[in-house]
């Protein structure tokens, strides 16, 4: 039975909480749901389950791999009240912006909340009148600025949008986005205006209200710093960490504050893992002297969040009003070379004695918190003050600007900078657990001091200066700097400027005909020192790390002669980047500039490829179209039952069939139609069979958004303990009855994070909703009236994943997008793994934003003759979709797609695959959530096949990819071909120039391929269309039929032709004469079955694969397999060493002994055990890589990288 319509319920009572009837029974019914995930784990990994999707679809990336998820979250306090939406200013907090001489006056107006005003002391009374006057002026400026912003209409030739700028932000320089304004797509409330239903989120997955005490409105759910936002009401754990690049930071150092870690890379042939040694981190925080010297004194490390932007998050300690008068705040910002902590005394009580009194009083009765730096390893030499004086820990001394700290064990040198001269002392702190050495800064807030209000505030910055101070030979190349002294001089030069709490991402859209969309990073630059008299011209000398794709964009702009002043520069001047640091994504290099302007070439969305299908393919295309025109989604999806991922894929599948049919009809109905159209009967969009198919698509799209679905979308609002978003209620699917067992308000999706891939826990929202938006765009294309009638309903889905404006109080900004890194993050709020957020399918992320762009374009046309305001909104949606898709594509091409020629300069050579299967904040893996076979990891980065895929899959990458992809599919022929993944192999085959063969092989596929788990988003029509519209390749890839018995001989002959003349036994040859790689079939493993895999054999070594070199020696030089493998393994040890039979056996045996089977306790630890069993079963259980997964046994290190490990088994 379908649930009642939304409007029937909501007309009775529009209050959200009144719609929660039946909540208690719902919770009781679903109390055991989460626990079922663990019992189903082995079934999820079975082939039958993997390739047979059920409507509730827990076989794709889901959290059912976690054991007893309910127990995992049980430590949240019961009775936790739901987060209530408060109408207060979101920025009732203080982060000292010391000496912002050029701050905007209008920023003062919103410095305090509606009901919160500063406490004015006797000392400050004389300034009260000045404050009042400033506030009045600021209020006037804010009003006039706001009016001028609203006055910029859609008719302006140039639109600039800054969705992230905060009205209370202050900057040391004029920001490029200060005067920008981002129009919301809609201000309609999902419940009160659009009649969406609500559901009460269980307390264990609701936001921690204490954490967001100063924040109003919707909250991020997929941000790069999400682990910090998932802190419970208990003390922070090691999970509360973030990776701002290049540091890893956490909140569990010895004292309240931020612990900062230098990182290094550990690589294997399938995993890249960023590691750090926890005890080598340096904590910047606050502590009392008694806490440092006592073994029993403790202080809460709880923090609260005061600012959140796409580029950073600001934390403050203590998290609430305590006896401490000192607060300290830090903004954790992507690309930060320094960690920055701002300290402020919150009242006029005398906190710290002057230097004279401090010397007089050996034991002061004022034991207050002080700015403190704590190390967990001993210092190796006395702290160096201002490059001249050693700090004697027996005395109190003055530091003017800088302190240098060098530590034993880590061999790290840190530079510390202060905003003003301050007294400092140091001490051994071995009595405090986990600490060894501390430095404290003594603030002075004497009532007799006539200095201004900020005399007692202090800003402390610290940066890693040298990670290999005394023994560079022991450091890896990725850590060792060629010129550490030059690097430290650079840090000193730029230490005065730091990114503030109100960093912002803005956008500049030119006219409709412009070729670029511009992305602006405003770093909200703050000036630390007052006594720095640099000119305003140098006030923009902020130093930040830029990733490789940023550097690519800077170089492209410079090459094009771009004179934009917002283009960052390299601090060394000409010669490009020099001061770089290791990150997971490759080297990040220092640039300077207060704002960055990143130009993305417009990726104009379209339903059609840049060229029509080839004339010779029209007949088979029309046949396929006429057949596929009868396609219908399963009946349960037509009722809105089941999951929102596979239903979305199938909706888009039917939509693509229709748009291709329209294109075919136009080709053959034109006056100059090709001769191949003769005799072809192509149904037009007006014909009954076409209209019937369109009606099926229309109703199947509409049921999900009009409130009549068996499992309706509901709003997860703050009033009901939610985060701010649209999510599926969830369907407890009955296979035998083909329907949901539950009915709203029973919403199992909110109680079981494994259901529907965790959609109600904000997993994969852009994947799910992107397919639905794409399908809605197609319906609007054919039926503009339907588009207008359902505009606001579809906008709910668009706003959920692509909201650009803070004025939209129902959804967070760009839910999944990491604008700095370029890619999106798919994992939501369910768990906080140590490796942070992750995203598997970069290609589906690209397609999701392609859908947003298409929807905007189609709705602009639909509204053209009806509502110009709606036209402007639709065009804005289209532009945001374009820039979202373009930046996602750039990131995928740079970081997910790996090309041999660039591998060494970006990733360690030990990592051999050509793609990243799953990207995490601090780890990258060659695998998927649903299997470890290579074809799955390759394939998940290649679907769906839409127009955007042409820009996604470069020819160079496709030429290298085809061989290992096809080999893996052949090795797993049944699941790859019958499971639908072979469609993507053929797509790459056509991309590299073999269109005829790809089309022929496609026509030979069984029809079941297009209904399988991996293929149900494809259709024969769309596959043939994609193959036929690939651009012409002048030098097609040469392919050897792997099923040919003479394949090895043919390969040997080809390799003989490729091998240059030279020493007859020398395989260390030059570059190949043949253009492009050769596809071969290799049926040997060099007696190293564990390490000499097909990926190892297909790995390229100086122009040829390891396997082809071995074959050449065997066939041309009569070497036996052992000798050929050994010779190649020795001569190309870095690339082919895994196939050296003299090395692999002993290493594997020794390594295997180091990782015994995992214990029952570890198997049951759902926080620790998150490794994919099939592809990376070796779990690191102790050390810096704790929780890390590896396809081969960990090599144990005494230095803490991985100190112990175990091997997971199916029994886990």
Describe it.
By secondary structure, the chain is of the alpha+beta class. Helix content is 30%, strand content 15%. The protein contains 37 helices and 41 strands. The strands form 10 sheets. The chain has a 9-stranded antiparallel β-sheet with strand order 9-10-11-12-21-18-17-14-15, covered by helices on one side. Strands 3-4-5-8-13-20-19-16 form an 8-stranded antiparallel β-sheet. Strand 11 (326-333) and strand 12 form a beta hairpin. Helix 16 packs antiparallel against helix 17. The longest helix is centred in the C-terminal third of the chain and has 29 residues, at 868-896. The two termini are 39 Å apart. Residues 1-126, 142-180, 348-354, 357-366, 445-454, 535-539, 1044-1081 and 1146-1152 have low confidence and may be disordered.
What would you call the structural class?
A: alpha+beta
Which spans have pLDDT < 50 for at least 5 consecutive residues?
1-126, 142-180, 348-354, 357-366, 445-454, 535-539, 1044-1081, 1146-1152
Helix proportion range: 25-40%
The order of strands across the largest sheet is 9-10-11-12-21-18-17-14-15
Mean pLDDT: 79
Shape: globular
The Cα radius of gyration reads 31 Å
Strand content: 5-15%
Distance between the termini: 39 Å
Question: How many helical stretches?
Answer: 37
Total strands: 41
């Amino acid at each position: 039975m379908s649930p009642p319509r939304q409007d029937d319920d909501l007309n009775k009572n529009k209050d959200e909480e009144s719609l929660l009837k039946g909540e208690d029974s719902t919770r009781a019914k679903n109390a055991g749901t989460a626990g079922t995930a663990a019992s189903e784990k082995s079934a999820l990994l079975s082939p039958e389950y993997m390739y047979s999707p059920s409507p509730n679809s827990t076989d794709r990336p889901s959290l059912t791999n976690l054991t007893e998820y309910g127990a995992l979250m049980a430590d949240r306090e019961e009775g936790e009240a739901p987060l209530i939406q408060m109408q207060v200013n979101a920025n009732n907090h203080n982060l000292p912006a010391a000496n912002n001489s050029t701050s905007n006056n209008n920023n003062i107006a919103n410095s305090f909340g509606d009901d919160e005003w500063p406490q004015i002391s006797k000392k400050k009374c004389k300034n009260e009148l000045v404050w009042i006057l400033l506030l009045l002026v600021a209020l006037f400026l804010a009003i006039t600025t706001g009016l001028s912003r609203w006055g910029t209409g859609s008719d302006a030739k140039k639109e600039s949008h800054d969705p992230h700028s905060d009205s209370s932000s202050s900057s040391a320089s004029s920001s490029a986005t200060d005067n920008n304004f981002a129009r919301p797509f809609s201000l309609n409330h999902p419940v009160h205006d659009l009649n969406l239903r609500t559901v009460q989120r269980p307390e264990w997955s609701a936001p921690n209200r204490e954490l967001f005490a100063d924040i109003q409105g919707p909250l991020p759910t997929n941000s790069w710093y999400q682990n910090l936002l998932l802190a419970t009401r208990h003390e922070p754990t090691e999970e509360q960490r973030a990776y701002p690049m290049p540091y890893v930071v956490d909140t569990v150092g010895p004292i309240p504050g931020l612990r900062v870690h230098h990182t290094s890379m550990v690589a294997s042939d399938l995993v890249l893992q960023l590691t750090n040694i926890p005890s080598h981190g340096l904590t910047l925080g606050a502590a009392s002297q008694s806490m440092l010297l006592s073994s029993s004194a403790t202080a809460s490390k709880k923090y609260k969040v005061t600012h959140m932007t796409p580029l950073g998050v600001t934390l403050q300690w203590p998290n609430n009003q305590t006896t401490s008068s000192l607060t300290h705040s830090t903004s954790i910002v992507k690309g930060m070379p320094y960690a920055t902590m701002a300290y402020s005394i919150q009242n006029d009580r005398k906190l710290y004695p002057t230097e004279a009194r401090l010397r007089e009083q050996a034991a002061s009765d004022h034991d207050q918190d002080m700015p403190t730096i704590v190390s967990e390893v001993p210092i190796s030499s006395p702290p160096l003050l201002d490059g001249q004086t050693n700090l004697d820990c027996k005395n109190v001394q003055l530091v003017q600007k800088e302190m240098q700290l060098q530590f034993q064990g880590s061999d790290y040198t840190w530079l510390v900078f202060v905003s003003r001269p301050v007294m400092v002392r140091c001490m051994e702190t071995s009595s405090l657990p986990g600490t060894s050495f501390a430095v404290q800064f003594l603030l002075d807030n004497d009532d007799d001091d006539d200095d201004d209000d900020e005399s007692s505030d202090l800003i402390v910055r610290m940066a890693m200066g040298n990670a290999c101070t005394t023994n560079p030979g022991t450091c890896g190349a990725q850590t060792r700097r060629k010129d550490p002294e030059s690097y430290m001089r650079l840090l000193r030069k730029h230490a005065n400027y730091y990114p503030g709490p109100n960093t912002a991402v803005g956008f500049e859209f030119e006219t409709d005909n412009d070729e670029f969309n511009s992305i602006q990073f405003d770093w909200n630059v703050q000036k630390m020192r007052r006594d720095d008299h640099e000119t305003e011209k140098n006030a923009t000398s902020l130093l930040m790390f830029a990733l490789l794709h940023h550097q690519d964009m800077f170089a492209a702009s410079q090459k094009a002669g771009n004179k934009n002043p917002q283009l960052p520069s390299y601090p060394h001047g000409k010669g490009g980047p020099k001061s770089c640091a290791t990150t997971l994504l490759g080297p990040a290099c220092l640039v300077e500039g207060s704002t960055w302007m990143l130009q993305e070439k417009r990726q104009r969305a379209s339903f059609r490829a840049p060229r029509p299908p080839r004339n010779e393919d029209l007949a088979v295309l029309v046949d396929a179209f006429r057949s596929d025109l009868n396609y219908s989604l399963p009946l349960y999806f037509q009722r809105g039952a089941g999951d929102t991922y596979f239903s979305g894929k199938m909706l888009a599948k039917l939509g693509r069939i229709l748009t291709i049919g329209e294109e075919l009809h136009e080709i053959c109905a034109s006056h100059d139609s090709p001769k191949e159209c003769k005799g072809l009967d192509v149904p037009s969009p007006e014909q009954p069979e076409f209209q019937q198919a369109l009606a099926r698509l229309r109703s199947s799209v509409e049921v999900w958004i009009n409130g009549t679905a068996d499992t309706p979308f509901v709003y997860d609002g703050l009033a009901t303990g939610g985060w701010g978003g649209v999510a599926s209620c969830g369907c407890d699917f009955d296979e035998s009855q083909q329907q949901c067992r539950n009915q709203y308000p029973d919403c199992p999706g909110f109680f079981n994070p494994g259901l529907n891939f965790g959609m109600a826990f904000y997993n994969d929202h852009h994947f799910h909703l992107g397919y639905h938006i794409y399908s809605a765009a197609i319906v609007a294309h054919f039926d503009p009236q339907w588009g207008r009638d359902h505009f606001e309903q579809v906008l709910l889905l668009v706003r959920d994943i692509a909201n650009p404006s803070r004025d939209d109080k129902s959804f967070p900004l760009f839910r999944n997008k990491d604008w700095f890194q370029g890619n999106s993050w798919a994992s939501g709020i369910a768990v906080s793994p140590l490796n942070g957020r992750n995203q598997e399918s970069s290609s589906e992320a690209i397609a999701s934003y392609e859908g947003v762009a298409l929807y905007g374009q189609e709705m602009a046309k639909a509204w053209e003759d009806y509502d110009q305001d709606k036209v402007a909104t639709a065009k804005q949606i289209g532009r945001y979709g374009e820039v979202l898709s373009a930046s996602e594509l750039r990131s995928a091409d740079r970081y997910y797609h790996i090309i041999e020629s660039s591998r060494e300069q970006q990733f360690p050579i030990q990592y051999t695959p050509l793609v990243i299967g799953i990207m995490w904040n601090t780890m990258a893996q060659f695998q998927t959530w649903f299997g470890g076979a290579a074809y799955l990891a390759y394939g998940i980065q290649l679907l769906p096949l839409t127009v955007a895929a042409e820009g996604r899959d470069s020819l160079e990458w496709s030429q290298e990819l085809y061989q290992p992809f096809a080999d893996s599919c052949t090795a797993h022929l049944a699941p790859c071909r019958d499971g639908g993944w072979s469609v993507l192999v053929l797509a790459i085959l056509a991309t590299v120039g073999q269109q005829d063969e790809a089309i022929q092989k496609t026509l030979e596929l069984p029809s079941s391929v297009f209904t399988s788990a991996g293929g149900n988003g494809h259709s024969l029509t769309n596959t043939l269309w994609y193959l036929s519209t690939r651009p012409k390749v002048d030098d097609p890839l040469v392919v050897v039929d792997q099923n040919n018995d003479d394949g090895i001989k043919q390969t040997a002959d080809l390799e003989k032709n490729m091998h240059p003349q030279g020493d007859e036994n020398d395989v260390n040859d030059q570059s190949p004469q043949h253009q492009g790689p050769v596809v071969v079939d290799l049926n040997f493993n060099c007696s190293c079955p564990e390490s000499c895999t097909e990926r190892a054999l297909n790995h390229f070594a100086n122009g040829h694969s390891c396997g082809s070199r071995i074959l050449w020696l065997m066939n041309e030089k009569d070497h036996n397999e052992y000798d050929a493998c050994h010779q190649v393994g020795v001569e190309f040890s870095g690339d082919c060493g895994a196939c050296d039979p003299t090395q692999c056996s002993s290493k594997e045996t020794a390594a295997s002994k180091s990782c015994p089977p995992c214990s029952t306790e570890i198997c049951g630890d759902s926080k620790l055990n998150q490794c994919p069993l099939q592809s990376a079963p070796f779990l690191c259980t102790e050390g810096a890589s704790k929780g890390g997964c590896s396809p081969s046994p960990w090599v144990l290190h005494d230095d803490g990288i991985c100190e112990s490990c175990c091997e997971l088994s199916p029994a886990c």
